[in-house]
Design brief:
The protein is an alpha/beta fold and 337 residues long. The chain folds into two domains: 178 residues, 3-Layer(aba) Sandwich (Rossmann fold); 115 residues, Helicase, Ruva Protein, domain 3 (Orthogonal Bundle).
Length: 337
């Protein structure tokens, strides 16, 4: 099968899956698109927003559109790690002999919804760390592989709300994107009322299988990226570090720690998906700009001054991207001289 044919199959499948989700979800087209971009990039996605905005429904609807196993974990303060990954239990065989048998937890599914993930304690949150990075879990000294594709979609309320445990930096860094779910506009709110207060059932069709998702993930990695665009992605990430010699003033003033190399990977992989769904076979600088905020907003840690002035992460990322492009231009000019 030719490369062009594979790309066309991916675009058709992407549009079909997005259309199925939009049968249920009103508005949030950008959020839906970014969730799908994160999935095909091979990463995990964190959705943040106040209760009632449809975060959980979005994830459940996406799972219905995929021919994959799905499990939901409601995170609460009393949830334990074994409730997620499973545990060894004592069973008795037909001869009366007892032995340990591993009982799988809900993490052994293709799509895992970690609902209100910041309601659980850090001890329980850490149960996802190995699975999200290694696609396996270790219990009783035995490592067990998770099914592929493995995709965690987590929802959380804003950190300021009562009864939450902020996710540690190592946990946040394992999410390829952090998406902010906004309150709907009045037109969208009217549509939500129309759809949910009348006797009307919407059937979501399964449009994609697990092997197709894995094949599309491989296709994404084949998308070429020019050296100049790759350099811009690296420069954007480096510009989030106040210790870097070319760091912009806004970074030096407000940032304590910048993004990790995972931030650069998220930026490039997401940009490759965006390029394909827009009908292009190569990554552009516009793709990086569009995905800079989702890929980096949760990876930048503000210092005391940034926290005191309530610096908005998205505004900060936008300024950093502008500064990175300036560094690239100045570097080219210096080379020409």
């Amino acid at each position: 099968m030719s490369y062009d044919t594979r790309v066309q199959e991916f675009v058709t499948a992407f549009e079909g899956l997005r259309s199925e989700v939009e049968k249920v979800i009103v508005g949030h087209r950008e959020i839906i698109t970014h969730v799908l971009v994160g999935m095909f990039s091979g990463g995990h996605v964190l959705l943040e927003g106040v209760p009632g905005l449809g975060k959980t429904l979005l994830v459940k609807t996406l799972a219905e559109g995929l021919d994959l196993s799905f499990s939901r974990v409601q995170f609460t303060p009393d949830l334990m790690p074994a409730d997620i990954i499973g545990t060894n239990i004592i069973v008795e065989d037909a001869d009366g002999r007892k032995h340990f048998q591993f009982q799988q937890g809900p993490i052994f599914a293709h799509i895992v919804l970690a609902d209100e993930i910041n309601r659980a304690t850090p001890k329980t949150q850490s149960a996802l760390l190995e699975g999200m990075q290694e696609a396996s879990v270790t219990v009783g000294g035995v490592s067990r592989a998770l099914p592929g594709p493995f995709f965690v979609l987590a929802t959380q309320n804003p950190i300021e709300m009562e009864g939450t445990y902020p996710l540690p930096e190592a946990q946040l860094d394992r999410f390829i994107f952090k998406l902010r779910v906004r309150f709907p506009a009045i037109e969208e709110l009217n549509q939500i009322i129309e759809r949910t207060t009348q006797p009307r059932q919407v059937a979501v069709t399964r449009v994609m299988t697990g092997p197709q998702v894995l094949a599309f993930r491989e296709l994404i990695r084949e998308v070429p990226i020019a050296t100049t665009v790759r350099d811009l992605a690296s420069t954007i990430v480096m510009a989030t570090h106040p210790q870097w010699e070319h760091a912009p003033e806004v970074t030096r003033r407000f940032v304590r720690y910048g993004a990790s190399p995972r931030g650069a990977q998220a930026l490039v992989l997401g940009a490759k998906v965006r390029a394909l769904i827009e009908g292009r076979f190569n990554v552009s600088a516009d793709d990086l700009r569009a995905l800079a905020a989702p890929a980096l907003r949760h990876r930048i840690i503000l210092n005391f001054e940034g926290e005191a002035e309530a610096v908005d992460a998205d505004t900060l990322v936008g300024q950093i991207v502008d500064a990175a492009e300036t560094v690239i231009v100045q570097g080219k000019e210096a080379f020409l001289r």
